[in-house]
Specification:
Structural class: mainly alpha
Number of helices: 2
Protein name: Isopenicillin N synthase-like Fe(2+) 2OG dioxygenase domain-containing protein
Distance between the termini: 20 Å
Strand content: under 5%
Strand order of the largest sheet: 1-2
InterPro entries: IPNS-like_sf (IPR027443)
Organism: Miscanthus lutarioriparius
Largest sheet: 2 strands, antiparallel
Helix content: 10-25%
Radius of gyration: 16 Å
């Protein structure tokens, strides 16, 4: 969501708090675009005269960057940052 909204909605870290008095139900949802899918802000999420925060990249590139960064959010964003804006 962070990329698609050009930073307007920040991605949150997954955290779960358990409750010893009540059972917890979780639902897993997985999204895996095609490896060649280009990820970039949605039309209308980048204001006129504003540069996208991240450059367009393929999902395959993201997987490589994420793996190389061991899932470190800041390292991933640094590698995908738009340096033309």
């Amino acid at each position: 969501m962070e990329v698609v909204t050009n930073g307007r909605v920040r991605a949150g870290e997954h955290r779960a708090v358990t409750n010893a008095r009540a059972p917890r139900t979780s639902v897993a949802a997985f999204v895996m675009p095609a490896m060649g899918c280009v990820v970039s802000p949605a039309p209308g999420m980048v204001a006129e005269g504003e540069a996208p925060l991240l450059r367009p990249y393929t999902y395959q590139e993201f997987v490589g960057v994420y793996t190389a960064a061991n899932g470190d959010r800041d390292a991933v964003l640094a590698r995908l940052r738009n340096h033309n804006g």
